[in-house]
Structure prediction request, 348 residues.
Amino acid sequence: MSVSESTLQKTPNWFRSVGYLSESNLKREDCDIKQKDANGQDAGTKKGERIMGSVAVKTDNGIHTFNVFAQSLTSKGEESKQWKMYCDMLDWNPKVNGEPGVEPTLVNIEGTVSINDYVNQRGEISSTLRWRVGRANTKASPEDAKGTTLKATLYIHSITPEIRQEEETGRLCVTLYGAENNGTCFPVNAIVDEDMADDFEACYEVGMTVPFEFELVSRHIGGENKGEAKKFGRAGKVAVNNGFDVQELMLVGGDDEIEEPDELTAEDENGNEVEVKTQWINPVAMKRAIKARAQMLEELKNNPPEKKSGGKGNSSLHAKKQAAKDRMKGGMKSQLNFDDFDSEEDPF
Prediction:
C-alpha cells in the first residue's frame, strides 16, 4: 500500500461568529502546564494559569456556544501570544448575570471545529461538533450580520433525502468528513435546503472533495399551548412550550471539486517517498479512517469510561481515543495557514 493510500492530511476548517454575548462560563485558575524538549519529548511541567469553559453568543440565527481552553505558557515554556486575548474575554459583559443596565458586549469569535464523542445517559454514543475558540475580540460593528459561518474542505460520504414521518421533506441530509492532523477523521452532518437540493445533486456526488460554506441556525420543532378551549375550565395563563429548538448546520454554498493531483507522492532529499501536500482527500485513505473510527466508537460503547468527579477530565476516554489514533498509520500535517493562527495555542 502506498503512502498516499494509508494517510490523511489535515483538512482546513475555520468559523466566524458575530453577535452579543449571552452567557459567559469562563474560569481562570492556576495549573501545571506540560512541557516538551527540542525533540518533542516530555520535559516535566511548569507552573502557569489556564482559562477554560464556554461562551454563548446571541445571533440572528439563535444562541451559539463556543468552547474555550487557553494556557498562559506554550509547551516550550514561553509566554503565550494569545494569553492576553483570552484574559480580555473575562471582562466581556454577558446578558445573563452581567452588569445591570449595561448592554451585552458585541463580540467577534473565530476558530475551528472538531468532534466530541461521548457515551450518553442511555449508554449510546453521541457525537457533536465542538466549536473551539482560536481568536476573539470586540472589533465587530453593530451593522455586521449576526450569525455563525463555517468554511471547511470536506469529503462527501453520503447524500440522502431528509425523511420525517415517513415522508420526504425536499431537503437533503449530507454526511461529510474532515481529517485531523493525526490521520483520524470526523463527521460533519449538514442540511441542504429544499430550494437548493436539485442544484446540489447536479454539482456534487459521493467521493468528491469540496470546499463548502455553512451557516449554523436554530430551528423550532413543535408548537405552543396558545390557550385553546378546554373541555373543562380554561388553559393556564402562561403558555406552555410543547416544542424544542434544534441546531442545524445548513450547507449554503460550495466551490469547484478539488480533483486528484497528477502526482500523489514525491521523493525528499533522502530519497524517501513522501506524500504531496494537497487539500484533495484520497477516498481510499478516508474509507480506512472511517472504518477505524467506527471501531473506536464500538470499543467506547462496549467499554464506557468510568465517570470522574472533580472536573479533571476523563482520562479513560482520552486513553481509548488515543489508542484508536495510534492504530492509524502516521498522518501528515498540512501546511495550511489560517491567517497566522498558531495551532500550538489550541490544546484540544
User: Anything to note?
Assistant: The first helix runs from residue 3 to 6. The longest strand covers residues 13-36. The helical segments are 3-6, 83-89, 194-203, 283-302, 315-326.
